[in-house]
Structure formats: C-alpha cells, structure tokens
Amino acid sequence: MPITFDAAAKRIILDSASVTATELYSRSADWLATSDNAKYGAVFRQVGGDDLGGGLSIPPYFFLQGAWRVRPMESAHNLTITGNLFVEGGGVPVVSTVGTYQVNVNYTVPVQAQGISTSGSTGPTAADIAAAVRASIATELAQITKVSKIHGVGVDLVVTPTSRTAGDLLQTITTTSNSTTVSAA
Questions:
Q1: pLDDT for 54
Q2: At what angle do helices 126-136 and 138-150 cross, to 10 degrees?
Q3: How far is CA 117 from the centre of its chain?
Q4: Most CB atoms within 10 A, among 24, 46, 104, 113?
Q5: Residue 105 burial (CB < 10 Å; 0-12/13-18/19+)?
Q6: Which residue has the higher pLDDT, 132 or 29?
Q7: Confidence of residue 121 (pLDDT cuts 50, 70, 90)
Q8: 169 forms bridges with which residues in the sheet?
Q9: Do the Cβ atoms of 120 and 129 come closer than 8 Å?
Q10: What are the CA-CA distances from residue 49 to residues 4, 14, 33, 59, 151 (Å)?
Q11: Strand partners, 4
Q12: Are 66 and 89 in contact (CB under 8 A)?
C-alpha cells in the first residue's frame, strides 16, 4: 500500500483503511533515505523492540515527532491502526481528512507485559501483619477497653453511692457538699 509523505504539511497520507505502526515507521525510514528528504528531520522516534530471549521481545512504541500526523484516505471508512502509535509529548496521531468524510479510527495495540522478579523473598503473612498491628496499638486498645467498661459496654455496670464496678474495673465515688469525685481504686 503506498503511503505518501507531505513534508510541507507534516502529514503521512494513507490510501488504505488498515495500517500498522511498524509499516508507517518503515515507510518513513524509506522516505527519509530517498533524495534529500532527511533535511525534514525524523518523522518518528521508536523505542522497544528489544529481544528478551526465549521468543519474547518488548513491543515497539512509535512516537510521531513535531507536527507530523497521520491523515486517513479521502473516503468514509473505518481506519484500523495496529500497534503502539503515539504523538511525542501527547496528542492525537490522526487528523481529519481534507474532505468532509466520516472516518472512525480503531487502534489495536498488543497486550504484552513482562514480570519482574524480586530476589525470590516473600513478604509477611496476613497473620504476621495483624499481630504487628495489634502489638503496636496494644496500649490504645487497653485504654479503649477500659473506657468501654466505664460506660458498661460489653459488661454489666454496677453503681452504688460509693462505687462503680464494671468487670475487673473498680472506681470509688466520694461526695462532699460541693462536688462528687470518681477515682480509680
């Protein structure tokens, strides 16, 4: 499929409804090597494609440089671009047709990820984490339990004119003509 490069407009003009990012990159390399087209500078920057061994490789990513964009063919159609095609610094890689055609663009990108090994060690178990949290907040939990008992939460609260008892918690009550004092026994 012929792909045309318009250096003045910074457009890669398609004549098909389907193209791969690799095709665009390869044709741009061919175009740059023809005549004196290199004077216009790079159309793409490519990263990835590195061989990882065992038949695996990092998928290539192609970034349009500067104002370069892809322009679909002049007809109403669904354009499918396969591969990782982006604009350096962000933006949309495909511009509208010159005519008023409806073009829907579908990007098909490979789904591939590589795992990372971290020295083979394992982290703490959920039980280890829970025990560490409980140990860290033991003082606060004891205080909360004590306050709960004072209010009769979870235990019977027995109040007499001289004491308050809730489980193992005992408080004494002393009254004078001006005030009442509740203190830990």
A1: 77
A2: 60
A3: 20
A4: 24
A5: middle
A6: 29
A7: low
A8: 166
A9: no
A10: 25, 24, 22, 5, 68
A11: 13
A12: no
Domain ranges of the chain: 4-108, 142-184
H helix intervals, 34-172 = 126-136, 138-150
Go through 125-138 and write b for each residue having 16 or more CB atoms within 10 A of its CB, e for each that does not: eeeeeeeeeeeeee
pTM above 0.85, yes or no: no
Q: How far apart are CA 159 and CA 178, in angstroms?
A: 20
Residue 112 token pair: 């591939």
Q: Report the pLDDT value the prediction gives residue 119, as an integer from 0 to 100.
A: 60
- Return the structure tokens found at 95: 């511009």
Separation between Cα atoms, residue 42 and residue 38, nearest integer Å:
7
Q: How far is CA 27 from CA 1, 44, 64, 111, 137, in A?
A: 10, 11, 13, 24, 65
Q: Could you report how far apart the first and last alpha carbons of the chain are, in Å?
A: 94
Q: Distances from the Cα of 165 to the Cαs of 126, 129, 148, in angstroms?
A: 37, 35, 12
Per-residue pLDDT at 165 exceeds 80: yes
Residue with tokens 């982006």: 86
